Amino acid sequence: MTATPSGATPEKKTLNVGVVGTGRWAVRSHIPGWQRDSRCTVVGLADVDQALVKSAGEQFGVSNVTDDYRDLVNDPDIDVIDVVTGDAMHFEVTMAALEAGKHVLCEKPVHHSYAEVDRAADLAASKGLKTKLGFTFRYAPATMYAAELIREGFVGTPYMLNAYEQNSQWLDPSNPLRQQNNPGDPDEIQVASIEGYGAPVIDIMHWWMGTPLTSVVGTMRNFVPERVVRDTGKMTRMNIDDGDMWLAEFEGGGLASVQSSFVTVGNYPGIEVRVYGSEGAIIVRLVEEAGICQTIRTATKDAVEFVEREIPQRFFPEGGTSLEAWPFLFYSNLIADFATEILSGGPENQGDFRQGALVQQTINAFEAAHRRRAWVDFPLPAQA
After folding, report:
1. Sequence-ordered list of residues with C-beta below 8 angstroms from that of 128, at least 6 positions apart, any chain
2. What is the Cα–Cα distance from 113 to 360, expressed in whole angstroms?
3. Which domains does the chain have, with CATH numbers?
4. Beta bridge partners of 277
5. Engineering a disulfide at 85: which of 57, 89, 206, 252 sits with its beta carbon 3.0 to 4.6 angstroms away?
6. Quick check: 65 and 56 in contact, CB under 8 A?
7. Residue 186 and residue 214: Cα distance in Å, rounded?
8. Could you say which DSSP state residue 240 is in?
9. DSSP H or E segment with residue 331
10. In DSSP terms, which residues pair with 222 in a beta bridge?
11. What are the GFO/IDH/MocA-like oxidoreductase domain coordinates in residue numbering (predicted)?
């Protein structure tokens, strides 16, 4: 028998939200996104840093603040838990929230192992709960418009996709970087860029190519070996992948390339995804340039010059424009989509934990390919 989740009935018209973690991304994107949607009310905030959570509460007019996330998870009046903590706490808070019957939005990754993300997805399914990953760029109006064009056959059969996560944020080693949760062997390069910043373009790659991934190969690099660590303020050896390149093969013959990095000059951060097919091609750039946060350009086999398209207003939140800051605009769409999925009571649930497990398994396969210096078949063998 499936448990009845909080807020899952179609009769419910509004959602009460508890946000766990009140750092920079929470106050820049998550909380403003929830407050933009009239169907949602942020009723509680939690953070182990009491000063930080108090400040966020004052900024957004939320009086219920706590330094223990369990206060929100166990609150019967809260329908949704939004997990915006550091990576190390994502899985613990997520599983506790699901066990308590809450819908969950979690920043990526839910867990570094795809098998554990699948376990979270199974738990949510067993309780009839909706989940969503923080795949911010999936919800950019330009990305959603491109997906519609692909679905309608604009590109025909997708042949090749190029995905770039370009980020010069840590080219300067004095810009503090969070300490890795599990640094492991200091002589063995650790995953950072591909998991933290490459995940959104991997998500779009799977979505737009539309056929199963069959194999991957690629490599990781550590271009800047010493960096200031945020927790200590000291220059430390950080053997992380701050630059990656990968190739992917898909069922039916499709090909994709993925690049992610912390050190590519020109975007801070930004992504670009290009898809080429039998009938046409699409380029989406999600980069703040000249005051605009996104563009989409298309070409056809008969008119090969790329031209910019206007993004239809239906892909924007009410009153939204491409002149808004991308974290607010894209996350507003993510929040609105999640609220609609929960309140409708239907089966729709894009960008959920199952999709997150697929993306995480791809990252795990990329890492395996680097370690083995060889192609790796996909999906990976079942984990014990």
Report:
1. 2, 3, 4, 5, 8
2. 7
3. 15-137 (3.40.50.720), 140-324+359-372 (3.30.360.10)
4. 158
5. 89
6. yes
7. 31
8. B
9. helix 326-344
10. none
11. 145-282
R_g of the chain, CA atoms, integer Å: 20
Nearest to 114 by CA among 367, 363, 384: 363
Strand partners, 9: none
Q: Which helix (H) or strand (E) holds 65?
A: strand 65-66
Angstrom CA distances, 193 to 106, 148, 264, stand at: 18, 29, 12
| pLDDT tens profile 79-119 | 999 999 999 999 999 999 999 999 999 999 999 999 999 99
Which one-letter amino acid corresponds to residue 119?
R
**Strands of the 103-106 sheet, one edge to the other:** 65-66, 40-46, 15-20, 80-83, 103-106, 131-133
The residue with tokens 């960096």 is 227
pLDDT at 23: 95
Task: Encode pLDDT of 228-276 as tens digits.
Answer: 998 889 999 999 999 999 999 999 999 999 999 999 998 777 899 999 9
Dist CA 193 CA 174 (whole Å)? 17
CB atoms within 10 A of CB 235: 12
According to DSSP, residue 289 is labeled: B
Q: How far apart are alpha carbons 100 and 322 in whole angstroms?
A: 38
Dihedral sign for Cα 110, 208, 152, 303, please. positive
What are the DSSP calls for 190-236, one per residue? B--HHHHTSHHHHHHHHHHH-S-EEEEEEEEE-S--EEEBTTT-SEE
